[in-house]
Amino acid sequence: MGNLWISNLGELASPLGSGPLGGRRQGEVSRRHGVEVLCRDGRIEAIGSPPEVAAAAAHVGDIERLDAGGGTLVPGFVDPHTHLPWAGDRSAEFAQRLAGRSYLEIAAAGGGILSTVAATRDASESEIRANVTRRLDRMLEWGTTTCEAKSGYGLELEAELKQLRALAAAAADHPVDVVATLLAAHETPAEHRADPERYLDLVCSEIVPAAAAEGLARYCDVFCERGVFSAAQSRRVLEAGLEHGLRPRLHADEFADSHGAELAADLGALTADHLMAVSDRGIEALAASTTIAGLLPGTSFFLKTRLYAPARRLIDAGIPVTLATDCNPGSSHTESLPMIFWLAVLELDMTVEETLTAITLNAACSLELGDEVGTIEAGKQADFVLLEGASLDNLAYHFGVHPITVVVKRGTVAYRKAEAER
Description:
CATH architecture of the largest domain: Alpha-Beta Barrel
Shape: globular
Oligomer: single chain
Largest sheet: 9 strands, parallel
Distance between the termini: 25 Å
Number of strands: 19
């Protein structure tokens, strides 16, 4: 944790507060000019004019100086839905999809999630840990300072725990903070295809208790989708998680209206994610709840479905919205939140300000970290991204480039583009 003084900013752009913002408030971003930022012991000490920050700096010891070069400072990005601990490669399936086969067709033929399950079961914990570290490195370069990550490619007790242990080991030595989610109900494994309920028995009676007992996960998730797990089956898993202290998150209504949004709202889930096929009834249920809508446009883009979640309807209904990479080997193989930013602006019709809030404050709140990260305010953890260009608008305007020059984690420079280029 460091002391850092950031000067020569073109703009400082940040949502404000510690709670999720929905409706018109999601687009309320403070955009300030002529300010500097002082960090002390990894936290934000002062934000103000150069004389004000200089006065505050007089009471701090050794301070590293960072000349922003006229760039834009925003909060460190928070990626609230990823699947980082896996092994194997599914590029051959990607080629099949480009040739016309659908994701669901490939999965029904034994590919998809189950192919990654086979590779992950065969891999050692150290191999999976190395894979997670590489993915976290890429995420950091693209501005992510905090993320959520799920298991779900083991689908049996030891393999699920292996994923979570590898995730914890990689996170312990990495600048990016990682929050773990158990997703044992990601699919029914091949050995239980004839009796999916038997597999759910194992999830609820063995895998959930074991992950909770080892402290390997904070949340429990399930893939509520037609052909995977029904709303009733999903409820069973999430209620088992609640019994063991794991709060619910939910893959909901990705390919079809599976009543996942309603289930998430009823259980008080932190998020209902995907929502490309959410119904009017599902939107009404979310609007009447505290559940946050998690949108994953990278999945629609990568699968070429042309079906995106109804972001405008969700925001206009007052529902706080997050955005995430959904980083995984089959349906959204990217670690780049800027890529998701571009998709949100260009495909979901979200404003630049709404999109920034979605990958900072709202995402932090969906991980119960809104008091710590997600905004640039005195007292919060000093996690920042320095962008090229003197305006936040440039992040959307200049797409397809690497827009990040510096990433700061707890007041210490964790990534600098110039060093990486050298």
